[in-house]
Amino acid sequence: MPRMRLLIINPLATGLYDEDTAVVARLAVGADTEIEVRHLADGVPHTAYLPSQELFFNQLLSLVKRGEQEGFDGIVIACASDPGLSDAKTLVSIPVTAPFEAAAYTAPAFGRMAVLYPGIESGEGENLPGNGNFARELARRYGVLDRFACALPITVRHPTNEETETLFANDPQALRTLIRGRMREALATSGAAQLKRAYEEYEADVAFFSCTFWGGMLSAVAPHTPLRLLDPIGTATAYAQGLVAGRQLIADRSIE
After folding, report:
1. Cβ of 230: how many Cβ atoms within 10 Å?
2. What is this structure's pTM?
3. Cβ atoms within 10 A of the Cβ of 53, count?
4. Is residue 253 scored above 70 in pLDDT?
């Protein structure tokens, strides 16, 4: 039996990205940590990117609660704007985290953090950040605003509503391929330019990529920047493992 079980929740109404998430997460933890990735149930709209929070909030919290009931030791909400995280923490007794929180508490060990987020217009049923204010607000919430360097958009091409609807209905894997391809393309072009700005203009030491769709892709740009890069999935999973390990250590010592 594994020493630790972590549940990762993709707050989407599709399992298209579950295996991609699991592959990155497993590379971030020890061999004795079990990773399971789940997505939300029916009732959440099929969108190319994250749905508006009010459209999945209840389903997300229900899955968090179910995770504790099923014996998971920790939970990661796999969205870099940390939706529902504050409420989830009050709902269960096990550690719950999300990518931005994990990055906010990891980055200061290396210096000032730049946040690179998708500069993309929302599609139907989505409410994606229109600017970097969400990052500043989260940095303030987590008490690390003094270690915050900048928030810079990476230009990403969004599939049309018609493309999204057609591919979800007829060829979901083609939609996954399209979106991941555009995220890679954006990373290599706009992303590389914004990394340069973060280092030269804002004197950042660390860059956090604030979208889980970039999980596992950072090796393409890592050799071309002096900044340390924080993978959204890997950072959150490793941080969750550390939270659970600390909790278990405290529990073991209390038994003595």
Report:
1. 26
2. 0.94
3. 14
4. no
Write down the pLDDT at residue 1. 47
- Region 4-255: CATH code: 3.40.50.12500
Domains in the chain: boundaries: 4-255
Query: Each residue of 92-114: pLDDT tens digit?
Result: 999 999 999 999 999 999 999 99
Contact 133, 150 (CB under 8 A): no
How many C-beta neighbours within 10 Å does residue 196 have? 13
Return the amino acid letter for 240: A
Answer whether residue 255 shows pLDDT above 60: no
**Which pLDDT tens digit goes with each residue over 184-203?**
999 999 999 999 999 999 99
Which of 120, 25, 124, 118 is closest to 80 using CA atoms? 118
Residue 90: both structure tokens together:
């009050």
